[in-house]
């Protein structure tokens, strides 16, 4: 299995002084057993680059355009992220799908653009509460995942990260039970063919220090995409330590 990965999605949070304190608390992380990274708002990526350069902690974007350049006001290209030393980029987050009407096809195009620029796409997939209650969880996962696989090809998936984030557990304080998460993670891995064991499959959705170890104990959960808890160094590091195998 791939080495565990714990990524922090700061969402639209942060300030220069608060970031400085947080990043200082993360700089000494030893990534020999668990990879660690942060994805701040794009405006703070230069600060991450300065503070984290030379450390084991990676950084990445929260989104990017499918286009390389051009008249796309407000957008950020993969090359721009690369110039700021980004390793990862979160794509297809449910908040982007919901608030910005991002389709499965657009997310697939963004993943292709990220790979072309040697960035690691963190592909977010997950069902809403209504879809889970209707018994459609795996059908939603199948649609979102296979749109990307069919566009990229299975071999390219070896260079991606997949994050299962049930929409109903994001920012709500609710979390999928370890058993619920494992069922979906196992299904995702079953769709990845020959590259299945090379792909890190993360869980996201109200991950906290007190539920991380139980989630990470499941065989197909390779780490976490952490929201609110990634804004506090002690909590974020506690989650990362819980992923050590």
Automatic annotation (TrEMBL):
It comes from Pseudoteredinibacter isoporae. The gene is tpiA. It comes from the Bacteria. This is Triosephosphate isomerase. The active site is at residues 93, 165. GO terms for biological process: gluconeogenesis; glyceraldehyde-3-phosphate biosynthetic process; glycerol catabolic process; glycolytic process. The keyword tRNA processing does not apply. Substrate binds at residues 9-11, 171, 206, 227-228. Keywords: Cytoplasm, Gluconeogenesis, Glycolysis, Isomerase. One of its GO terms (molecular function) is triose-phosphate isomerase activity.
